[in-house]
Amino acid sequence: MFEILYQDNNLIAINKPSGWLVHRSWLDKNESIVVMQTLRDQIGQHVFPVHRLDRPTSGVLLFALSSEVARSLSVQFASKQIEKTYLAIVRGYVNDEAIIDYPLIEELDKIADKFANKNKSAQEAVSFCRGLGKIEVPLKVGKFATARYSLVELKPQTGRKHQLRRHMKHIFHPIIGDSKYGDLHQNRAFTQYFDIKRLMLYASSLKVTHPITHKPIIINAKLEPSWQDILLNFK
């Protein structure tokens, strides 16, 4: 069963585990166990998605409990009224905070988007990044005698596909465990040292205006035990 972080008559938020698809997708048409159907069975009513998390990303995932509420929340997401906060472990040392303003070309799926315009110009994409802690471990990676990692806070200001993963790659601090945009050698070293193999990206908090009461709601997710153990090493 999913951990429920928030629930009322209109909304429900869960702590999504890594490895789950939010809904059935062309990305894996044979996958029958997905968040939407599992949560529906858990609470005994339909749920309506208003945003998504990548399959390997864990953390706060919000659903509406009616189509009307879903439409209202979708407007908030589209107009950038939602504040999303993530934690990530990345390659190298991130000492300060920065705004990553780097437009991204839309990534299209070969099957689901086969009729989409493939010549679109890059879209605005902005993310906030702040270093929270650092660690150096005695592992040789490539030409380096040790491996260095940082714990960072990330806040996407726009909602492009894989935005945080692509932005961190752009500034040469790819997220650990990212098989598509990351550093294969660093991923292997991290897995060897910490005995954990997954994307180290966690949706830790979501701030939204309640579509019925119009009051702000902040939904926080407690870090998984594997994350807690690793973060004890960061300074």
Short description:
Helices cover 20% and strands 30% of the residues.
Describe this structure in words.
The structure is a single chain. With 235 residues, the protein is an alpha+beta fold. It has one domain: Pseudouridine synthase, CATH 3.30.2350. The chain is built from 5 helices and 10 strands. Strands 1, 2, 3, 4, 5, 6, 7, 8, 9 and 10 form a 10-stranded mixed sheet that branches. Strand 9 (201-209) and strand 10 (216-220) form a beta hairpin.
CATH topology value: Pseudouridine synthase
Percent of residues in helices comes to 10-25%
CATH superfamily: Pseudouridine synthase
The sequence of SSEs as H and E is: EEHEEHEEEEHHEEH
Sheet with most strands: 10 strands, mixed
Reported CATH architecture:
2-Layer Sandwich
CATH class: Alpha Beta
Low-confidence stretches: 111-116
Overall spatial form: globular
Question: How many beta-strand segments?
Answer: 10
DSSP strand content: 25-35%
Indicate the structural class.
alpha+beta
Overall mean pLDDT: 90
* Alpha-carbon Rg, integer: 18 Å
H/I helix tally: 5
Features:
235 residues; alpha+beta; Pseudouridine synthase; 10-stranded mixed sheet; 30% strand
Topology:
Blueprint: E1 3-7, E2 11-16, H1 35-43, E3 48-49, E4 58-64, H2 67-78, E5 83-91, E6 97-101, E7 126-137, E8 147-156, H3 163-170, H4 184-194, E9 201-209, E10 216-220, H5 225-231
Parallel strand pairs: 4-9
Antiparallel strand pairs: 1-2, 2-4, 3-4, 5-8, 5-9, 6-7, 7-8, 9-10
